[in-house]
Amino acid sequence: MNEFDITRRYENEFQLLSILSNCRKIVDKIKFSDKYFKSEFYQKIYRYLKNEKSMDIQLMLNYMSIDDAKEFITKIYVNNLYADCDKESMALSYAKLILEDYKKDEIRHLEYSKATLSSDEYYNKLTEIIKLSCEVEVESLSKEAIDEMIMDDSQGIIVKNFEILSHYLKIGLTDLITVADTSGFGKSAFLLNVYKSLSQDKDKYKCHYFNLEVAPKTMIKRLLAITSNHKVDEFDKNVINEDFYTDARDKIQDNVSYIKSGSITIEELKAIVLNSLDQDKSNVIFVDHIGLLETKDRNFSRNEYDKVTHCMKELRNLALDNNLIIFVASQFDRASIKNNNIGMSSLKSSGEIENSSTHVLLLKESKDRETPEDQKKYYQEVTVNIAKNRNGEVRQLDIYTFLKTKQIFRES
Fold first, then answer.
1. Per residue in 357-410, pLDDT tens?
2. Using CA atoms in the order 100, 105, 106, 109, what is the torsion angle rounded to 10 degrees?
3. What secondary structure letter does DSSP report for 253?
4. How far out from the chain centre does Cα 312 lie?
5. What is the DSSP track for 312-325?
6. Which segments of 113-213 does DSSP mark as H helices, in order?
7. In what order do the strands lie in the sheet with 359-365?
8. Measured between alpha carbons, how far is 172 from 180 in angstroms, rounded to an integer?
């Protein structure tokens, strides 16, 4: 009998493992033992999840066959990959149901052997069974852990060339930062500047940039311009030698961080991210932009509002469940642009963008540092309005210049 023919028979075990395989941190939080599983196959999977911290087919083979490993990835792992729920509570509920079945079986076996046991032995064993529990373990806070949290809250990550903005934002793990502007104003370049800064610090960060808007060639040319301080249109001219291309390629292309271009669903994005996390680094995700992110779930694909609402909730849960930092690009709605009344309510498509974001940055034309009309195709003076800030104050920073020809944001 195929191992997965037992799914219906041991539905609670199947559901628990599907949650644990997607939320590995819960594995160590719930007091549980592999002996509670009735299915030997599910016992193997639980041992793997308990002992290993990464989704690696080679490691799986230490616990199960290659066919079992493939079935685990394609059925159990993907079963709960996209669920929008309190995964810790759900996992605990399934764990308790499994444990109750285990306790019933143990008590039944104890009754069968009652005649061979003394009265004290019987009641001692019965007490041990009844006392079994699988509550969530509360982590004790050491002085070191408290100091680390205080330090993280007070500093946050520092993005090179955005030091002043970093000071006010104090971005940390699980934060979701939305960057919005009018179409073509510079939000993609802004995110690429952040990506360039963090991805080059290979010891600290692993970055995943999902480009949903422009051709891959265009995106790489923009990043080359930012990295090399050359104008974008210079790459079409015979003015740069081969050494430049070699150096530039080495700077922006490696096995740690990457850019993926093309259409994608929220389900595919989550699968890519979860299968490529680096547990030793801070993982930073860029989504450019939220309005182009699709979903396979028909319940949320009826209209733009439902789709964006669903995708933002999924990104928020992805950040929370996996200690990620996520940057999302968005746009302003046409009415706000027309009325020149830009604020958080201007975010296009869904109010969930504001609700799910821990930080909202609105890129606007500077009013005090006016850009000459004949120079706007070359550069733009920009105000970054920190409209929402979970970790600090809201304020406007009128200190940025966007060099359009080089795709570079400069902080004065």
1. 999 999 988 888 988 989 988 999 999 999 999 888 999 999 999 998 889 999
2. 160
3. -
4. 11
5. HHHHHHHHHHHT-E
6. 119-131, 143-155, 163-169, 187-199
7. 258-261, 205-211, 282-288, 325-331, 176-181, 359-365, 379-389, 395-403, 408-411
8. 20
